Design the sequence.
């Protein structure tokens, strides 16, 4: 999440206030400070600046059985750019759970060039909006019962709606002795699976660039539609922003399929991992991810 103001359209006041609602994790010179990057889960500053320590902590936390399950869905009207997100939380414990339910709209694979001040050009799951706000909605779920929470939302025209994900969680209101605010359950759903009422006449094929298979082992294909003679360019980067490969050409006007054999510009096969692509043309510009196994 971006918590510092910048000129790249990613700063969100609600994200910063949510951050400040927890105790600061970093002690220096007799004072406590909020710091990034820092691993937080359940409202507790479990991590540090060292990314290598994060995975084991997250894996251990995810292995703890949850007493709550969540199911998410949504609908969207492309004409008004508005919709509703729903989450049903079921309490399988033996006691009533009281807490806040929050929704966050996030956008993935945001490409910024020149880089932002910390040198990054790719930004993933950036918080775009908190629903209804950064404190959430207070709910009570009796033992063995369920509650459905819904929030209306509006999509900003500057966001890439094909890269949006809705995240939700149900969190206790009480701080535990180690400053934890227990999160009983969370979930996420891609905006692409919403029931979407499209604008009449909108050609969705011009807005999508699909990479398949994804994940891939020996190669992947980029599929898209552009008017005949349209120039396109696909730049592929690794997760730290280093350029890997460029694919370019002219569209035939039919369904276009451009293959990437997983080799970089030097002809070497890339390592397994996550790669990011930037698609550019005079019709559509978009970003995406490819997982190489």
Sequence:
């Amino acid at each position: 999440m971006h918590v510092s103001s910048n000129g790249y359209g990613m700063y969100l006041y609600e994200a910063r206030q949510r951050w400040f609602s927890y105790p600061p994790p970093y002690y220096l010179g007799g004072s406590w400070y909020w710091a990034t990057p820092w691993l937080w889960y359940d409202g507790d500053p479990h991590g540090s600046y060292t990314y290598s320590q994060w995975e084991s902590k997250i894996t251990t936390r995810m292995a703890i059985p949850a007493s709550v399950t969540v199911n998410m869905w949504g609908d969207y009207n492309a004409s008004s750019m508005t919709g509703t997100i729903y989450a049903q939380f079921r309490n399988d414990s033996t006691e009533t759970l009281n807490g806040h339910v929050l929704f966050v709209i996030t956008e993935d694979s945001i490409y910024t060039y020149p880089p932002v001040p910390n040198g990054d050009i790719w930004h993933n799951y950036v918080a775009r909006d908190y629903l209804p706000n950064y404190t959430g909605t207070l709910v009570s779920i009796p033992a063995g019962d369920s509650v459905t929470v819904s929030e209306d939302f509006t999509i900003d025209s500057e966001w890439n709606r094909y890269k949006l994900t809705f995240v939700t969680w149900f969190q206790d209101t009480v701080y535990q002795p180690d400053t934890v605010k227990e999160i009983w359950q969370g979930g996420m759903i891609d905006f692409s699976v919403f029931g979407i009422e499209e604008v009449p006449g909108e050609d969705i094929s011009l807005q999508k660039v699909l990479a398949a298979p994804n994940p891939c082992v020996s190669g992947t294909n980029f599929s898209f539609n552009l008017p005949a003679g349209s120039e396109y360019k696909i730049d592929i980067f690794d997760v730290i922003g280093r350029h890997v490969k460029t694919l370019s050409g002219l569209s035939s006007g039919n369904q276009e399929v451009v293959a990437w054999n997983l080799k970089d510009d030097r002809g070497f096969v890339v390592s397994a991992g996550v790669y990011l692509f930037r698609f550019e043309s005079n019709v559509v510009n978009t970003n995406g991810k490819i997982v190489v196994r």
Q: What stands out?
A: Helices lie at 13-20, 54-62. The mean pLDDT is 85. The radius of gyration is 21 Å. Residues 54-62 form the longest helix (9 residues).
